[in-house]
Amino acid sequence: MLKVGLTGSIGSGKSTVARLFADRGFYLIDTDKIARQVAAPGSPGLAALTAAFGREILQADGSLDRARLGELIFSDEEQRRRLDEIMHPRIMAVVDERLAAYGRDHPDGIAIVDVPLLVEAGLFSRFPVIVLVYVTPEVQKQRLMARDQLTAAAAARKIAAQLPPAAKRQYADFIIDNCGSLAATARQVDEVAGRLRQLAAGRNPVRRPGPPVKKG
């Protein structure tokens, strides 16, 4: 089985690219959906988050208030580190379980794992192949403003909290430029899909990535 890490910065359109891969028959694992599951009401994950950040991160029904948690960690590097320490091991444990199950049934298959902060979290070494969804900073800002109804200043602050897209290029085996039309992106996905099938049919490449990149 070929394990592929799919990543991209906020506003890059990574979710769109993930859906395009899924439409082409690839097995997709969405870590954002897993994050919601491991922090569901009554879960050990939510209990750990509440212990770390207080009950103010809970909504009236006891579920996680993701917006409130985001506000707490947005400009606080230490708080983001605490969140990562709680969530990443739980998320990746589920990812590993799903990959193992899929690999048993599809030893020659291809699994795409959608990981937004793959580089920032130092998770790149888990994947023999990494696909980066890339957009220019200007396109990133414009799309984020339109998607989340943000001012230019607010979008810039969100973008600054992540590693710049250009800095992630050195980790990518394949880069999909998502600055253009959906059709243009789909053509690139088709090209990468063909290359991934070739790799899965032969010998998987071995990555030797450098050290994790830290913002700032």
Which keywords apply here?
five-stranded parallel beta sheet; 216 residues; alpha/beta; globular; disordered C terminus; 51% helix
Description:
The chain has 216 residues and is α/β, with parallel strands linked by helices. It has a single domain, classed as P-loop containing nucleotide triphosphate hydrolases (Rossmann fold, 3-Layer(aba) Sandwich). Helix content is 51%, strand content 12%. The protein is built from 9 helices and 5 strands; from the N terminus they run E-H-E-H-H-H-H-E-E-H-H-H-E-H. The radius of gyration is 18 Å and the shape is globular.
Summarize the structure.
The chain is α/β, with parallel strands linked by helices and 216 residues long.
List the helices and strands and how they pair.
Elements: E1 2-8, H1 14-23, E2 27-30, H2 31-38, H3 44-53, H4 66-73, H5 77-105, E3 110-114, E4 129-134, H6 137-148, H7 152-160, H8 165-168, E5 174-177, H9 182-201
Helix pairs in contact: 2-5, 3-5, 6-7
Low-confidence runs (pLDDT<50, min 5 residues)?
Answer: 204-216
Radius of gyration: 18 Å
Mean pLDDT: 90
Helix content: 40-55%
| Count, helices | 9
Q: How many structurally independent domains? A: 1
The general outline is globular
User: What is the CATH class?
Assistant: Alpha Beta
